[in-house]
């Protein structure tokens, strides 16, 4: 187990807050300052990998696009596979997918069904949990493919938006490194 050099509180100070983006009243939590900080990125991956190891991860799934950054790094550190959860039309093979609701409309996620072994313990890793729609759809999709999905790990939780609670009510435990109140 790798002992991270920076604490979650120190990592939180590396996340930039951009006011009024993408619209007035929203405080956008920008992780580009965290991933651009070598020690911060390394410590973030260490924290997530330690948690995924404790969950018994046999593979890691990450959602397009920032879940690819953290999920793939965690998988490499653990020596296990990474499963990209893609937007529609990005995979060159027959896929399985799930549609899910957005604030204004719907979206879809897809995976290669052959990438999941029946009963395989897959941990979801992403940068941020807000309303939980994408993470919940990812859990549903992985379960549809035969995976056991009991855990999801995020760098940031926005608890006021209720996404972590939504995942927990679907039987997915949620781990996060930091929280930011508000939107």
Description:
It is a single chain. Helices cover 32% and strands 32% of the residues. With 183 residues, the protein is of the alpha/beta class. The strands form three sheets. Strands 4-3-7-8-9 form a five-stranded parallel β-sheet, with helices on both faces. Strands 1-2 form a two-stranded antiparallel sheet. The longest helix has 17 residues, at 38-54.
Question: Descriptors for this entry?
Answer:
183 residues, alpha/beta, Rossmann fold, 5-stranded parallel beta sheet, two-stranded antiparallel ribbon, 32% strand
Silhouette:
globular
Topology pattern, helix = H, strand = E: HEEHHEHEEEEHEHE
Alpha-carbon distance between the two ends: 34 Å
Secondary-structure-based class equals alpha/beta
Strand order of the largest sheet: 4-3-7-8-9
CATH class of the domain at 56-176: Alpha Beta
Q: In which range does the helix fraction lie?
A: 25-40%
* Helix run count: 6
**In the CATH classification, which architecture of the domain at 56-176 applies?**
3-Layer(aba) Sandwich
- The fold-level CATH name of the domain at 56-176 is Rossmann fold
Q: What is the radius of gyration computed over CA atoms, rounded to a whole number of angstroms?
A: 16 Å
| Poorly predicted parts | none
**What percentage of the residues does DSSP assign to strands (E)?**
25-35%
DSSP E strands, number: 9
Major beta sheet, specifics?
5 strands, parallel
Overall pLDDT: 95
């Amino acid at each position: 187990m790798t002992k991270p050099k920076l604490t979650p509180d120190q990592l939180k100070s590396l996340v930039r807050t951009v006011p009024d983006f993408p619209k007035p009243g929203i405080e956008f939590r920008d992780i580009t300052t965290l991933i651009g900080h070598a020690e911060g990125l390394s410590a973030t991956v260490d924290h997530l990998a330690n948690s995924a190891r404790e969950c018994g991860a046999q593979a890691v799934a990450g959602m397009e696009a920032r879940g690819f950054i953290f999920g793939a790094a965690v998988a490499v550190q653990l020596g296990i596979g990474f499963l990209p959860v893609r937007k529609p039309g990005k995979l060159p093979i027959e896929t399985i997918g799930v549609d899910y609701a957005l604030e204004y409309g719907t979206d879809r996620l897809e995976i290669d069904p052959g990438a999941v072994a029946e009963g395989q313990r897959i941990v979801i890793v992403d940068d941020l949990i807000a309303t939980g729609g994408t993470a919940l759809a990812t859990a549903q999709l992985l379960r549809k493919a035969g995976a056991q999905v009991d855990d999801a790990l995020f760098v940031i939780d926005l608890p006021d938006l209720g996404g972590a609670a939504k995942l927990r009510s679907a039987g997915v435990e949620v781990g996060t490194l930091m929280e930011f109140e508000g939107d």
